[in-house]
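Think of the structure tokens as a kind of shorthand, similar to the way a musician reads notation: each symbol stands for something richer, in this case the local conformation of the backbone. In the example below we present two proteins back to back. Begin with the first one, reading the sequence and then the tokens, and try to describe in your own words what changes along the chain.
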Amino acid sequence: MSMRTLTVRIKRYVPERDRAPRWEEFKVEADPHDRVLDVIQKVKWDQDETIGLRRSCAHGVCGSDAMRINGVNRLACKVLIKSLPSDVLTLEPILGLPVIKDLIVDMKPFFDHYKSVLPYLINDDPPPTTERLQSPEERARFDDTTRCILCACCTAACPPFWGDDKYVGPAAIVNAHRFIFDSRDRGAAERLDILNDTEGVWRCRTVFNCTNACPREIKVTQAIQEVKQALLTGEVDTHSIVNIHQET
């Protein structure tokens, strides 16, 4: 495949200096097998070193390079240039979080919501002499939501979150789900009480933006619906897999 000449449009903004965001364009020669992250780094290294972005592992694990790529939340390290429909590449920060600089957003509100749902194992039972065991079926009940990498793609794609920064957001609910349905955990009731709020699961409007935005293909909307059903029925079934909301 031949090289492509891309027009890279980056939304630039430094709150302490700029009155409003502005667009800057750069021309870049890119191999179709390059990733969007490679292209951004070429621009930063060769044309404008002041461009602000986050990146770390470059393998879709850390989630730090989440951004809007041609209007869609994605990880820059996961999107190949050959998948772009045109030679115009538009890059913006994810929505709903304060911009620190260019493509970098303040993740503190996001992690505050994450911490609010108690995303850790709670079990005050006397510890067993070996590890706390669970069956493959019990593990499968919450396996999907263990894959969250806290990139914020789902939360920043959620329309209710854009207009209400008090809403805990999809990622927090996904991480609550991971422990609510864990047979070893004893904190489900406490987490459900936290989420049984106008700023909890009931703020979800089942738009499916979160599911479509997730780079790990987690069934985010389904997880939210399962938490809702647990609240409505007052029961948490950790021993069987029940598809509350079938997604395709």
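Once you have a description of the first chain, move to the second and do the same.
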Amino acid sequence: MKIAFIPIDNRPVCYNLAVDIAAIDKSIEFFIPPREYLGSLTKNADVEKIYEWFCTLPNVDKVIISLDTIAYGGLIPSRRSKDSEDTIKERVKKFRSIWTKKKTKVLAFSSIMRISNNNYNEEEKEYWKDYGTKIFEYSYNTHKCSLGEFGSPIQNLIPKSILNDYLMTRQRNFNINKMYLEWQKLGFFDELIFSKDDCAEYGFNVKEAKELEKEGGKVITGADEIPISLLSRAIEKDISVKPVFIENDSKNLISNYEDVTIEQSVLNQLSLAGVKVKENADITLIVNNFKNHQGEIVMKQPTEQFSGEIRLPDTPYMIADVRNANGADNNFVENILPQIKLNNFYGFSAWNTSANTLGTLICAAKIKFNAKEYNDKAFKKVQMTRFLDDWAYQANVRQTLDKPQDIKDKMKPYEDKISKVLDIEINNDYIYPWNRLFEVEVVDESC
């Protein structure tokens, strides 16, 4: 199968992870733009170069497109871009003309612009550092109270020029999403997903999601994992999964940054991946969920960690550790590592949000289970990266840092443990692709 893939941006979890997961099956011919074409924290994607790359592709069976990349230059630029609605429409229509000529199936996703409840403008417009929480409150209250044109009293605390700019940007992006929905009705997409992340119970993003759903749009809570979930869906092979929750009485609780229960998040990701839920399933999905609330390691928000013991099954299984956002549960990982046997192990993940963890975990497991030409080295590379990023770095080493620095020595004890579990030699370097602590790139020097 030949698959083309246009990521959200150049982060390791968006770019490298997609490449590494696809490599688990050598029969998949995977086409992806050069990484330097993609956007970063401070740079927009080079849309013209991606277009040229797209035009030169051979005929592929399916193309997976992050529409934010070709429309705005990436997920972050979608919130910052000053381009007009007409300019963006013409840009995307160029791509549509090519995939129409190539007669390929297109699986696409577009984000519903998030509303972060903070005064942190690293990924937003400049004014977010002063008015982010006020804009969030305005959005939340306007939707909740159904005040309509009268708005929320908090708007008086936001300069009119800033509020107008924000609302115009939202309306532009929403109009673009409505255009995509019309294209889907005309048959241009084989699958179209609208994503919402950093959700609250109310807000303009929630309101827009409901309007898109009324018109037949499919909305999923999540973001960064969705292109990889669509890769899973593109592999049209049967696989069944049985979810098992460590804290079964708490599966109705809602994860951080999401607006659905952890159980519903699991079911949504399985459905998007084209996976059936069965009692007597091919693979068991073990979910290390939270009891009272999800922890947040980065924000120093603790939760009750895993206690007791778990016995891993003798049948195929994979593990989603979502007890915390942004990092693994140390007690849980230390419990499972000695038990892992490679013959029935289909993956581990614990990065960022619950949806992020689930979507990418399921894809790797599905490709491994159905691989025509299974690549054990590639599967082990994915697992090495997840354990060393999600557990060693995020849950441990990162907590000792106040800025990016050389961490090879700090990572060595964790490398030794993972090398024994996966039966591989590890010779890694670690870099900070966006020059911040939030993401580290595990560079496998042995490749």
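Compare your description with these statements about the second chain. The chain has a mean pLDDT of 94.
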